[in-house]
Design goal:
This protein is an alpha/beta fold. It is about 50% helix and about 5% strand.
């Protein structure tokens, strides 16, 4: 389970006017437009929360705002503005933000009967593209589709998308978003122009946090930037959800490994398992995985890279040998599998959290004795 940006109070990318720190990617899209060589499909990749969907909606708004050029072709005259910005008061921006633009279709994981997102994008969702592109543009000269995200296509959905990419409809633009583009079918990748977004520098992330959360202490902003690893969306989501405090709770709870305070562990799991704590439960699962990955990277490299919170890398010296790393990597895989299974089957939350701690405890059992 992951923390959805909307659930954390961060505006949806279709409502976001600002694109931070991806000037080179924006310039590449604008250059292709001005040269009249815009491919029918782009694959926009990068870490979660980096701005992929924000860029996709930004480009979609730009294209939909252009209308039909004198030739009636898909792409109109060069735009001299120097960026892809469409003003928030523009009717195109407002319709895209409300999800009501007739010439824009977003393909994403459908909702199940309980209103939760399913775990994958199904073939029926992709088949909507065929009917969408068969229609004449209603408000502009273009029809634009965003697949958010292509990583979540199941096999049948991926094959259906491939057929569309093999014979792209006229006056169409397909923007694929992916966190792990190499996991996509090679034939899908080969039919798209690639555009990879890079993590933002910490100073930009800290500046963004200060603008949205001026009450944040400097140390908290720095910690959020470290935990977000250059992802502005993740930093904002963590700030809204109290991520630093939740992360400190995890570090403090696990610091005594392998000799844990099981009373404290059970109390922690009881609190997070309550239904009113849905949000912090989901956040904690993400942060547990993040803590473990940061610890293992630090142990493997021999560098701490700066602790996000005090004591974060306290176990590094006890897991740095090769056999220790292997055990902890196995624990990380077990935790990830268990979390995915529990989310899909709606299993008991407390038991999942205890299983995570048990797995970490087993990994820690063979560590060298700690000094008293």
């Amino acid at each position: 389970m992951t923390v959805d940006q909307d659930e954390n109070g961060v505006p949806h990318p279709r409502e976001t006017a600002e694109l931070l720190g991806h000037e080179a990617a924006e310039a590449a899209l604008l250059e292709a437009w001005n040269a009249g060589r815009v491919p029918h499909a782009w694959l926009i990749s990068g870490p979660k929360g980096i701005g992929k969907a924000t860029l996709a909606y930004r480009f979609a708004r730009f294209v939909l705002a252009q209308g039909v050029g004198d030739s009636g072709a898909l792409f109109g005259a060069p735009d001299p503005a120097g960026d892809l910005a469409v003003a928030p008061e523009d009717p195109v921006f407002r319709r895209v933000a409300s999800g009501g633009h007739a010439d824009l279709l977003t393909v994403e994981r459908p909702l199940d009967a309980s209103g939760r997102r399913k775990s994958e994008i199904t073939v029926n969702e992709v088949r909507r593209l065929r009917g969408f592109f068969n229609l004449t543009a209603a408000e502009s000269g273009h029809r634009v589709a965003i697949v958010d995200s292509a990583d979540e296509l199941n096999r049948n959905a991926a094959n259906a998308l491939l057929k569309i990419l093999e014979e792209p409809p006229e006056k169409s633009l397909i923007l694929l978003i992916a966190q792990a583009p190499e996991a996509l079918l090679p034939t899908i990748r080969s039919r798209c122009r690639r555009l990879a977004l890079r993590p933002l520098p910490s100073d930009l992330v800290i500046a963004l946090l200060a603008r949205h959360y001026p009450e944040l202490l400097e140390a908290e902003g720095t910690a959020l930037a470290q935990l977000a690893a250059g992802s502005p969306g993740r930093a904002l989501g963590l700030a809204e959800a109290g991520g630093v405090a939740a992360y400190q709770d995890i570090v403090s709870l696990l610091a005594p490994l392998p000799r844990l305070d099981w009373g404290a562990v059970h109390g922690w799991a009881d609190r997070l398992a309550r239904r009113e704590n849905d949000r912090i439960y989901a956040l904690t699962l993400d942060l547990l995985a993040l803590w473990l990955s940061r610890l293992l990277r630090s142990a493997a490299s021999g560098r701490d890279g700066g602790e996000a919170v005090p004591g974060e890398f306290g176990l590094r010296g006890f897991v740095a040998d090769r056999s220790g790393l292997r055990r902890w990597l196995d624990a990380a895989e077990e935790i990830a599998h268990g979390a995915a299974l529990a989310d899909a089957l709606n299993l008991d939350r407390k038991q999942l959290l205890l299983n995570v701690v048990f797995a970490l405890g087993r990994a820690a059992q063979a560590m060298p004795a700690r000094a008293s």
